[in-house]
Amino acid sequence: RITYEDLTSAARAELPATVETVVRAHEDRFIAFFNESQPLTPRMHAMELIPGIGKRLMWQILDQRERVPFGSFEDLQKRVNVTDPVKLLVRRIMNELSEDEKYKIFVRPG
User: Fold this and answer.
1) pTM of the full predicted structure?
2) Cα–Cα distance between 10 and 31 in angstroms, integer?
3) Pick from 89, 24, 26, 21: which is nearest to 52 by CA?
4) CATH classification at residue 87
5) Backbone angles phi, psi at 44, to 5 degrees
6) Which one, of 26, 36, 37, 39, lies nearest residue 72 by Cα?
């Protein structure tokens, strides 16, 4: 298994675009995260780990998914004021790959 530190600078530059391609190709898996994620601790929900999603937005997402689960990124954007959920997910995945995050929700700990 290759770590982020093992990548060349060219590979690191290509990685965000590649991760975005994977997120778009596996939209159902990532929408399932928004539909099924649970609290990690009594005070923190897994959704709050996504950059750009705070408590207020998290509660809107939880309220909307309780009514009807999200079907796509477009559905998520229309029903909740989330700007480009793909970019938010890519940022989180890149953080998990490149930094020592306490909680890894998309990347296997290495």
Assistant:
1) 0.93
2) 30
3) 89
4) 1.10.150.280
5) -135, 130
6) 26
11-62 per-position pLDDT tens digit = 999 999 999 999 999 999 999 999 999 999 999 999 999 999 999 999 999 9
| Residue 43 domain boundaries | 4-98
Whether 106 is covered by a domain: the verdict is no
CA distances for 10 relative to 7, 14, 27, 58, 87, angstroms: 8, 6, 26, 35, 20
pLDDT for position 110: 66
Question: Which spans in the chain are helix H?
Answer: 9-25, 27-36, 55-67, 73-79, 85-98
Domain count, the chain: 1
Per the domain annotation, does 105 fall within a domain?
A: no
